[in-house]
Amino acid sequence: MMKLSGERTGLFLLIFWVSLVMYSCSSGEDDDPIDEHKNLEVRSTRPFYHLTPPTGWMNDPNGMVFFKGEYHIFYQHNPDDIVWGPMHWRHAISSDLFHWKDQGIKIEPDEIGTIFSGSAVVDWQNTSGFQTGDEEVLVAMFTHAGNLQVQSLAYSNDRGRTWEKYDNNPVLSKVGDFRDPKVFFYSPEQKWIQVIAAGDRIQIYSSLNMVDWVFESDFGPGIGYTNGVWECPDLFPLKSEDGTEKWIMIVSVGGTSEYSGVNGGSATQYFVGDFDGNKFTHENDEILWADYGIDNYAGITWSDIPNEDGRRIFIGWMNNWHYAGLIPATEWRGAMTVPRQLGLKKNSDNEYFMTFEPVEELLGVAGKNETYNEAVQEINIEDNEIIQSGSFKIKTQINLSNNSFFELKIYNSREEVLLKYDKNQAVFSIDRSFSGNTHVHNLFVKTIKCDYAIKDNILPLEILLDQSSIEVFVNNGEKVMTALIFPRYEFNDLKITGSGGSELIQGLELVSIKKTVDN
Question: What's the confidence (pLDDT) of residue 352?
Fold first, then answer.
């Protein structure tokens, strides 16, 4: 998670207060009278099918582990306010990644410090010695943040319902930035591996019992994107569609400049390479991003998903540190992305890259469906019930053989979100500058751009909108763009147009998504 101390504290607080002043000076209602728009419904910002805290503040996902039919997720949580503060681990459980049941706060601050980010695993062989009954023990490793950042353990012998901290915490200490441990079991050598962020690099440690750790190697510094502190690492194997197995290192970058990252502020990069049990080596020359939008940070993957399932599932915090404490909120603030299944492909240069697609469980929470099968140049859907719900999916295929660009607009009479692809420039973009409450920060009126070269003039798209967010999956997740939006009124309409050719739209499916999180 992002550390707010030392020099970075001053920089963050300066950005925060300057932004707050700008927001308070400019966040009033628009000058145009609203009486002429009485038919528009003022709407809530709380998502229907994305995980949010019942109350209080949420940031990084933590402790994600699958055990006996249940997905566990913890997250960074301030129960007493809707801004970043003393961090706790709050817990939720789901059997399908969408219907989440809040379990309350499980790991609280103590005399060592507050509870920063970390991970959880199933200790199948009881290497830690924490198991007390017949059922396997869950073990969490997290950063204790006090005068120093140190690494500590907690464990559960009742399927994650209650957690006990290890008596001899901390188990790993050093000087300087040192946080966000991600732990996994490395079967070839029957040992635990920990990757942990240490300022401008990722450090790798090993252990036989999760208590006694030995330093193995550094990854970095000076690799990939470095304009910001490295945080929230993950390391795991992933098989490509050609059967080749590669190792993936995920690293979030807490950039505080609106020019940092891929589109401003904080972002998450990844590296493709190999791991030999001691050292990770990467093979990609270009910087690869987990999301080419602006609001996806600190994402990691679930541990212990069964081999028969075979998936690697990722989730991120749907926000940006540059304005995280300023977005519209009442009793809660923060949300997670939709869980995403990871894949691995080769590009035209024979280099591997990851794909990110919504997990198949999304189909299980689908509601009303409308299908448009004809190939047409333009679609204009007005006063649509599915769009008015604020929580829906659009799936379409765009044919740019006879068009140089296309635009997809979701809108009402005052506000809009505009997606555009320019074939000549090979750029996909999201424009949220007229999407509603854009006074949050300057980045809300900056067009979010992503380079993408279309293949065979065909562009498959899947778009998820959920009250205050939009997630765009291009060509089966080859590129993903996530952005927060805060329309003041319900969207009603959808329009897709091109540059004037023919048969631009090769069918369209519009699907409502049911409310799954009961807050």
Answer: 97
Cα–Cα dist 387/478, whole Å: 26
CATH class held by domain 360-513: mainly beta
- Asked whether 149 and 213 are in contact (CB, 8 A), the reply is no
Radius of gyration of the chain (CA): 23
Domain topology for 56-358: Tachylectin-2; Chain A (2.115.10)
What letter does residue 339 receive in the DSSP assignment?
P
Distance between CA atoms of 252 and 1, rounded to whole angstroms?
9
| Integer CA distances (angstroms), 285 to 223, 224, 271, 281, in order | 9, 8, 9, 12
The boundaries of every CATH 2.115.10.20 domain in the chain are: 56-358
How far apart CA 64 and CA 303 sit, in angstroms, is 6
What is the spatial distance between Cα 246 and Cα 444, in angstroms, rounded to a whole number?
A: 36
Cβ atoms 357, 339 nearer than 8 A: no
Residues labelled catalytic: 60
Per the rule left: phi > 0, alpha: psi between -120 and 50, beta: everything else, 86 is beta
Question: What pLDDT, on the 0 to 100 scale, is given for residue 1?
Answer: 52
Q: Is residue 405 very low, low, confident or very high in pLDDT (cuts 50, 70, 90)?
A: very high
pLDDT at 21 over 50: no
